[in-house]
Amino acid sequence: MADQELTLPGVLARWDRGLFDAVARRHWPGADRVLPRLGRAANHGVLWGGAAAAITVFGSARARKAAVRAVASLALASATINTVGKWSVRRPRPLLDGVPAVRQLATQPQTTSFPSGHSASAFAFAAGLALESPALGAALAPVAASVAFSRVYTGVHYPSDVLTGAALGVAAAFVVRRLARDVQEARVVPGDERAARGAPALPDGAGLTVVVNTGSGSAAAAGLDAVRARLPKAEVIECEPAEVAPALAEAASRATVLGVCGGDGTINAAATAALRAGVPLAVFPGGTLNHFAMDLGLLGPEDACRAVADGHAVRVGVGRFSPGPGGEPGYFVNNFSIGAYPELLGHRLRWGPRIGGGPAALLAAWRVLRAERPVRLRLAGRPRSVWLLFAGNGTYHGTGPTPRRRDSLGEGLLDLRLVYGGGRPGPRLLAAALAGPLSRSPVHTATRLRSLRLADIPPGTPLAYDGEYAEAPPSLVLDELPDALTVYRPR
Q: Is the peptide bond before 29 cis (omega within 30 degrees of 0)?
């Protein structure tokens, strides 16, 4: 018997039981009322489902993405524990000798003890959040640790059950992140854009000036780290969102290559500065969705670093909207719209600082769908009532009014989608989408063209371009500039 206790399993078992008994003997002020209830709240993932719902409703787009990853991590951890873990090591639950009755659960678990499913779920959720949003992960980490500790405190698990469960939960979060990256890599397929001759190769980054939008958070920080590691001689300018546009214009006037790290709105400002200065653009994805970078074939900032070092770039088309005489044109690398979406965006930007991004988006959507105010204007010389006008820089996949992604940015055509006003276009459009292809719907039309003239636009009509919001002029011309911009992309 003494020899058995000196083996490694025997030593671990003694340590496990000794620590379990030490927790049982110690008085924890206030914990008798809090920890058992916290453990019960985490039954069947209810606590974490509620947290994910709150983040989805009140959080930003990045926070919602983090919540999805956290729930996926929890699901993987829970499935692994309950199908493999519990039945591989059939360890009995601890004896409750010494555990005060006030701590014990009214209904004792009937499954085996190793590992702790509550701990796995808690740490999977917190780690899944942290890998996508470190601030949210840090906020939920103490709650996850408390749920895990409550399993020892209430006498239903040994400490090793909890530690192993926590480790498996963290591992599940990393697996989900890897799977998500694999899916993203499968989606990122470089298009057939024409190679740009003469793009300078900058092996160490000398001649590259990168403007970083610090408002983009952790994604921008990751892009900044990649630039400093791979292109150490590049000049880096960190800016608050309000300072980005002037910094880009100044950097483009003197740089050999203009670089930008941020989301699609920041990339729009960089593309505008690069076009006006006639310099190549290096895009280091640092936003939430990164539509332009994904459609270009850039998975992350490392791809852009490699392209700049090798001097490989392509020519892409750029959309332009030009007001009447004397007005300065604007540009879009993704899309331009008039009607329902700009109105929704305006409501969201106005209400977001007061009630949060999620509630603002829901309230804005309800307001726009309820009002359903069409814009009456002249389209190519003909009077039209338009609920939504969408113009894409290049042809998008899908037949809806706001399609998803593009195969090429070098096509040189605008993808025009129109939803006509009158007769409650929102519900009619939804009904048509559910019934079959939207191309058959009388309220929706799609075509491709090089230019389009809009006139008699009512005063105060909003427009949106690459997620930015502005007021439309009385008239404008939409057109496509083929091969207008040189952008770095690896071979």
A: no
DSSP secondary structure letter of residue 30: T
Closest CA to 454 of 392, 384, 400: 384
User: How many C-beta atoms surround the C-beta of residue 391 within 10 A?
Assistant: 23
Residue in this structure with the two tokens 């965006």, named with its chain if needed: 345
Helix or strand run (H / E) with residue 257: strand 257-262
> 186-200, 252-266, 348-362, 404-418: lowest mean pLDDT where?
348-362
- What DSSP string runs through 191-229? --PEEPTTPPP-TT-TTEEEEEEGGGTHHHHHHHHHHHH
Cα–Cα distance measured from residue 157 to residue 92, given in angstroms and rounded to the nearest whole number: 9
Give residue 469's Cα distance to chain centre: 20
**CA dist., res. 68 & res. 285, Å (int):** 21
CA 172 to chain CA mean position, Å: 20
What would the pLDDT profile of 42-65 be if each residue is shown by its tens digit? 888 889 989 988 888 777 767 887
Specify the range with the lowest mean pLDDT, choosing from 182-191, 329-338, 372-381: 182-191
The DSSP string of 103-171 is: TS-SS---S--SS-HHHHHHHHHHHHHHHH-HHHHHHHHHHHHHHHHHHHHTTSS-HHHHHHHHHHHHH
Q: Residue 290: left if φ>0, alpha if ψ -120 to 50, beta else—which one?
A: left
d(CA 448, CA 417): 9
Axis crossing angle, helix 46-58 with helix 117-132, rounded to the nearest 10: 20
Sequence-distant (≥ 6) Cβ neighbours of residue 190 within 8 angstroms: 296, 297, 489
More confident residue, 466 or 180: 466
* Tens digit of each residue's pLDDT (9 = 90 or more) over 362-386: 777 777 766 667 899 999 899 998 8
**Cβ pair 157, 86 in contact under 8 A:** no
How far is CA 241 from its chain centroid? 18
In this structure, are residues 74 and 129 in contact, taking their beta carbons and an 8 Å threshold?
no
| pLDDT, mean of residues 426-441 | 46
Q: Indicate yes or no: pTM above 0.85.
A: no
From the CA atom positions of the chain, what is the Rg in Å? 28
Q: Count CB neighbours of 423 within 10 A.
A: 11
Confirm if 174 and 280 have CB atoms less than 8 A apart. no
CB-CB contact of 301 with 223 (8 Å): yes
Distance between CA atoms of residues 422 and 431, nearest Å: 15
Q: Residues 2-13: pLDDT tens digits?
A: 444 445 456 677
User: β-strand 257-262 against 208-213: which pairing, if any?
Assistant: parallel
